[in-house]
Write a structure and sequence with these properties.
InterPro entries: Ribosomal_protein_uL10, Ribosomal_uL10, Ribosomal_uL10-like_insert, Ribosomal_uL10-like_insert_sf, Ribosomal_uL10-like_sf. Pfam families: Ribosomal_L10 (PF00466), RL10P_insert (PF17777). Belongs to the universal ribosomal protein uL10 family. The chain is α+β, with helices and mostly antiparallel strands. The protein has two domains: about 110 residues, Alpha-Beta Plaits (2-Layer Sandwich), CATH 3.30.70.1730; about 60 residues, Molybdopterin biosynthesis moea protein, domain 2, CATH 3.90.105. About 35% of the residues lie in helices and about 25% in strands. It has six helices and ten strands. Strand 6 and strand 7 form a beta hairpin. Helix 1 packs across helix 3.
């Protein structure tokens, strides 16, 4: 299959976006930070028949909306929210049900070094099941531990990562070794257009 040239593709994208705004009375503007292609594919499959998901470049979305303002001036309220990774979920169904479906499709994710933490991460006092050779990880993070029956045990609850902070390499490595997936990512509703 031959790919159409860029100008044709852009023109078709503008038409598609405007058709969707005309056809569907309601839509969500959703943030898609940290959502992988596999997860996005699963979300699209779950929404099939209930909603249409459209992603695109912010400048193209803004240009299409500005060109359509004469017919639909209410769209202007969406313009300030088109920043970062965003997309549209168009629907004719109840917004509450669609929002619930979006929340169902959140997936747990491991902590990656350099990522911004969306929530606090605390480690409860527990037996880690790791051998004593891994104590250096815990010492580097100032986590109080003891060795009990040949495994490392965390003595007290530790506030490992605070919300909004960058995840360090050693914190990410420790959480991955413990098999903890502290973060969950999915489509986040930024704005509702009704």
């Amino acid at each position: 299959m031959v790919r159409e040239d860029r100008t044709t593709w852009k023109a078709n994208y503008f038409l598609k976006l405007i058709e969707l705004f005309d056809e569907y009375p309601k839509c969500f503007l959703v943030g898609v930070d940290n959502v992988g292609s596999k997860q996005m594919q699963e979300i699209r499959q779950a929404m099939r028949g209930h909603a249409v998901i459209l992603m695109g470049k912010n400048t193209m979305i803004r240009k299409a909306i500005r060109g359509h303002l004469s017919k639909n001036p209410a769209l202007e309220k969406l313009l300030p929210y088109i920043v970062r990774n965003v997309g549209f979920v168009f629907t004719k169904e109840d917004l509450g049900e669609i929002r619930a479906k979006l929340l169902e499709n959140k997936r747990g994710a491991p902590a990656k070094a350099g990522a911004i933490a969306p929530c606090d991460v605390k480690l409860p006092p527990q037996n880690t099941g790791m051998g004593p050779e891994k104590t250096s990880f815990f010492q580097a993070l100032q986590i109080p531990t003891k060795i009990a029956r040949g495994t490392i045990e965390i003595l007290s609850e530790v506030h490992l990562i605070k919300k909004g902070e960058k995840v360090g390499a050693s914190e990410a490595a420790l959480l991955n070794m413990l098999g903890v997936t502290p973060f969950s990512y999915g489509l986040v509703v930024v704005q509702v257009y009704d």
